[in-house]
Fold this sequence. Notes:
Blueprint: H1 7-38, H2 46-49, H3 68-96, H4 103-126
Amino acid sequence: MEIFINKSEILGCLKLGFGLLCFVSMVGLLLLFLGFVCGQKWRCEWQKLTAFECGFDALSSTRSSFSMRFFLLALLFLVFDVEIVLLFPYIFSVSISWIKMSLYSKLYYFSFLLVLVLGLIHEMNEGTLDWKFD
């Protein structure tokens, strides 16, 4: 059974998609403009940014350093989490018809898993996942 699509149907879908894109963009710009107009004006004043301890100067710095290990771990989590989420639809479709799949599709799946595992092994060798407290 062949499927024929008219040019007018394609143009109608493109016009609808472009119209929705313009509408969403205009709503976003409107909300951004309203935020600038109606939002609080924030002025950077030194006295307001310092810590207040009963009228005295702060005993220590209010800024604490951010550990780079937490940042790297969060970044690794995002990368591997996105890759796992990309695998979910494939896993559910494969569980039904693994035998009917082509060799190319199976090789693509295993190469994706290989890249994922090699990345994890590399991060383990680099010591990013080791929590050594100095």
